[in-house]
Amino acid sequence: xxxxxxxxxxxxxxxxxxxxxxxxxxxxxxxxxxxxxxxxxxxxxxxxxxxxxxxxxxxxxxxxxxxxxxxxxxxxxxxxxxxxxxxxxxxxxxxxxxxxxxxxxxxxxxxxxxxxxxxxxxxxxxxxxxxxxxxxxxxxxxxxxxxxxxxxxxxxxxxxxxxxxxxxxxxxxxxxxxxxxxxxxxxxxxxxxxxxxxxxxxxxxxxxxxxxxxxxxxxxxxxxxxxxxxxxxxxxxxxxxxxxxxxxxxxxxxxxxxxxxxxxxxxxxxxxxxxxxxxxxxxxxxxxxxxxxxxxxxxxxxxxxxxxxxxxxxxxxxxxxxxxxxxxxxxxxxxxxxxxxxxxxxxxxxxxxxxxxxxxxxxxxxxxxxxxxxxxx
Length: 377
Known about the structure:
mainly alpha, 77% helix, Dynein_heavy_tail, DHC, coiled coil
């Protein structure tokens, strides 16, 4: 019958998957470097996502990550050795007959390609290991290398300027071409650094309740940044305009998000206004243990007035945040955000009550006074 035939079919498919799993693992074992590892993963493609094959093969992703980590360490070692050589001899070690500046630029480009290509290939792998702590550590090494090379290239450009001032005639054309647009490139770099700083701040500081509200805006920024990662170069037409637009877009979101956070902090500060001083006070005469109740109504009215004013201010701040985060009030995520603010307010009221109760407990008020207190409340 159909059920039996289906079971037989599924068993055969599972057996084929197990065989393919063994084949892929053996093929991976036979690879001799990151490049061949990535080629193998690319060739097998979607097959590696099949459940049985994936379970057999997934351990190999850790090996890929280990090799990538080693590649970053090797690149860092090469960089450190060259910097030591430069410190001792005044220049990095170059190929024979290679001009100093042009050779430095070429070496930096070759080193960057060496560790960037495998990193990009690794990021293209859709696997849970991409979000592991070990991957984060490798990514940090990658960013560190980028920063070191950036500073090295800035040093090379400054040297070109020095040589030009000295009216040297043997400056390589490649270096002169770069230096001719030195100020422009430095402006690009400054704007890019500013963009990176703002973008990282968004990613690192946005809370779980805030992110759904700005998710589309972040995705829009990611799409714009993807152009720089995949297609744009320094020579692309209107690259300066693109960099400036991207910077302004990221900075605008970062500033609006920060303003909304400042408003939430103000709400927290407002709710903490009354949780330090209790509503009741004790007579100041020496040895006096009674509470001052004569001006109780006045103090209650003052508290109520302050709380009403704080409530009005909180509504204003919440409306400002709706504008800062550019959300629709009918959005379910906005409703969750409002509940988040409500919890802050509720916790503030709890703290106010707790302050008064702690005061009564600490001073060991007589039972009759405690009863009178709650009647007044």
